Amino acid sequence: MNGSQTPARPPPPLSGRGSPLSRMPPRKSLALFAFIFLINYLLMRFLFPGEQPVTVPYTEFRQQVAAGNVIALYSRGTTIEGRFRNAVTWPTPEEVKQAGQPPRPTPLDRRLLPPPKTSSHFNTELPAFFDRDLEDFLINNKVEISAVPIQQGGLWTTLLYFGPALLIIGFYVWMYRRAAQGGGMGGGGVFGIGRSKAKRYDATDPSLRVTFNDVAGIDEAEAELVEIVDFLKAPDKYTRLGGTAPKGVLLIGAPGTGKTLLAKAVAGEAGVPFFSMSAAEFVEMIVGVGAARVRDLFKQARESAPAIIFIDEIDAIGRARGGVMVGGGHSEQEQTLQQILTEMDGFTGREGIIVLAATNTPDVLDRALLRPGRFDRRVVVNLPDKAGREAILKVHVRKTPLAADVRLEELAQATPGFSGADLKNLVNEAALLAARRSEAAVTHKDFLDALEKIVLGPERPLLLTLQDRERIAYHEGGHAILGLVVPGADPVHRVSIVPRGQALGVTYQRPQTDRYNYPEAYLRARIIGMLGGRAAEEVVYGTKTTGAENDIEQATQLARNMVTRWGMSEAVGMVQLAPRENHFLGAPGGFGGEKPFSEQTAALIDAEVQRIIHGCHEEAKRLLREHRRALDGLVSALLNKETLSEEEILQATGLPPAPQLEGAPIREKTV
After folding, report:
1. CATH for 54-151?
2. What one-character DSSP code corresponds to residue 13?
3. For the residues 324-334, what does the mean pLDDT come to?
4. CATH class of the domain whose range is 466-588+595-670
5. Is 125 tagged catalytic?
6. Active-site position among 476, 537, 608, 619
7. Could you tell me which residues come within 8 angstroms of residue 255 by beta carbon, excluding any fewer than 6 positions away?
8. Under CATH, to which class is 386-456 assigned?
9. pLDDT tens digits, residue range 583-628?
């Protein structure tokens, strides 16, 4: 044929998603619908039999018409059906028949007969010699003569008889379509609950793309993932020599260190889709849903390969199997874990799919997850050091106007132990504080006030007496003086007697550099400084208050760790008597069961802890008596200004900074 012809549109598929058949219920459903209708009709007929018409004689019919009790009627041949205005009671045909036959029925016979009927509907038969003037008689008595049968119940009766069945069938059809939209009954499950809830981040969207330029302070972890990015960009570079990409990378670190951000940066650098999902979202009340969601997640990733799957808090489903849990929850968790293991075993290394997972508790993960071929690499994301914190602050202040007096290096030095999320919160709180103060830019004081608010809480407008303020000033002054005179103590950065949160005052001591190892002399110096508030109260007033509760708690914990964990007691020796803390959460672990030492050892531990605390307390009182004049001068300045900086503290006391050994983590002293 000459000319062009538009190609015919292919016919719609006969099966599969989007086809007409996929939207139609199966044939067996039609039989089910019919069965539901039948059961519904019979049940309604039994429970609500409705109003049955009574059969009345023709004479009674005329009497009711004359009395004006007939509203309407319908005639078909010699049969008349009608409706009374007021319901009448009439004996049943059996009663009428027996009543006309002698002898009359006995009371027992009457009890065996059906009861009389009361109804507003009736029927009667016209006699062969009926009155020809019946029509005029009916019209004169205002009876409506209808040409169609009179309906009994109407719409409400129809709804009563068929409404429940229609609701059940409608619910079934809706459920079926939801399941079809969710990937079918096999893949999506009922209501699509088997569908994964993973959030997809497309690297092509500039507003969502995250790169290594947005990540700072975790250079070691970033360097470990550069190879992953390179493989996703050029897989042939590695596969040509027979190598395969790692199937999984486990990110381990404390909360807020940037594990999720780092995973997004890997996807952004590689320019591949990023599927993010929390492990807790896999598990549902219905057993098997978690495994179905795992299958659907990996199916989506394969369809978009190369891609990255990120599972946050994988310990929620990746805990070691074999434990006993109440309610059978372990069964669902184990099924979900086994499905993840199966999906990762299905990788050949050529699909371009890499699984990233994050956790704070790597010790509880199942060993099958950590074996080679599953999570081949483990990347530890540590808390940033001083240089890292400064780099993170520079990232977060990109869109924040800063005043000329802001010193990010000093802020980084004053925030050891802060994660990336903590530093982001610090910048945000400082910006909000500057906005409340109607400032054009964020100042260094805004950052310091925001730091105090984060650590201790907002200011409390308490009305304190002069005696209370003086006692609080001596308490905080005791901490500060010992921070200046004890060798190896952290430098005193700030002292305040402004109530914040649960604290009536605070003393900040910041390190010169980050510390990763703690000598015994430094730990004792810290305990001496912690007990400085109580020691100052005893030296000045000769009495004690409840203000040292937090100090005593910290000092006791530190002294107990020296004895039970770090072997710094000659009497106890180098024996592990306390569980190791979780390095990433800071929470103590547990031996499980009873304590692994005798009562004699427990008594010895208590005695050593008391010895360390008592010795440090006595040393604190001795040093404060020796520097009483400096203490009084510091208290006078505190009562005058309430908050003193490092320079103002040195000026008020006339003391030089304490000889420094090495830095240590930040510590706050509260009353």
Report:
1. 3.30.720.210
2. P
3. 58
4. mainly alpha
5. no
6. 476
7. 360, 419, 421, 584, 585
8. mainly alpha
9. 666 555 555 456 778 888 889 999 999 999 999 999 999 999 999 9
